[in-house]
Amino acid sequence: MHHGSDHPDDLVLDASGALLYSDYTSGTISLLRADGTSTVIHRGLDGPEGLVLLADGTLVVAEENTNRVLAFAPRASRAHVLTTLPGRPVKVTCHEGVDGIAWDATTHTLVVPDPVTGAIYRMAPDGSNRTRLSGGFVHPVGAAVGPDGSVYVADECGGDVWRLGADGSHTRVARASMPDDLALDGHGNLLVTDVRHVRHDLRRWPLAGGPSTVLARSGLIEPQGLLVDAAGRIYVSDDQTDVILRLTPTG
């Protein structure tokens, strides 16, 4: 649905159903129109990655190179800082800063992995009350929260996808070489992008157990952003082939 000269990374839908995407390379956030063209709505960011859109229209952005979480208030042109995570990132594989972030609708909080320290945090939408949920990961970059409040974490450099226990423990729920982003499809499945070049695919894993299904691989080099809309359609971005794909599962 989009193939341009930019490098789409994380994805989020706005209230009208329009797609917003980050571009780490150019430091921008863009809005994608239905005809496939796009417009930059925010620029000047230092490595924008994960996106969460709050109910009031506030856009929350993970800024990788500073290890900060920022927020753009509705109609605001400049962001304010919600929090700066403890880790000090460097531009070396498996040492970069904050990437994916997630919204927990059961507690109305943000779930934020700190890839540098391997810890997972929860905080209020205004950045207050940051608390540590778990730790011990190698380089956690993706997060998703189920309707029951279960938190899932992609450990990009440690491998595999994990569900957090109430005591901070980790339970493996999906196998992956370098998992990047996660999404739940509403049918008991976890979707996982894998950026390791020998895999570079999108897979569906049943949370009840069982083998995975490859949903997309051809034409992908580094699949990054991932989301599922209300109709069950899956959107996946690739910041190397510069595309955003929309998939409609048939089974």
UniProtKB/TrEMBL annotation:
Superkingdom in the source lineage: Bacteria
Pfam family, one: SGL
InterPro entries: 6-blade_b-propeller_TolB-like, SGL, Vgb
Protein name as catalogued: SMP-30/Gluconolactonase/LRE-like region domain-containing protein
Residues covered by the SMP-30/Gluconolactonase/LRE-like region domain: 15-194
Database matches in Gene3D superfamilies: TolB, C-terminal domain
Coiled coil feature spans: none
Transmembrane regions listed in the UniProt entry: none
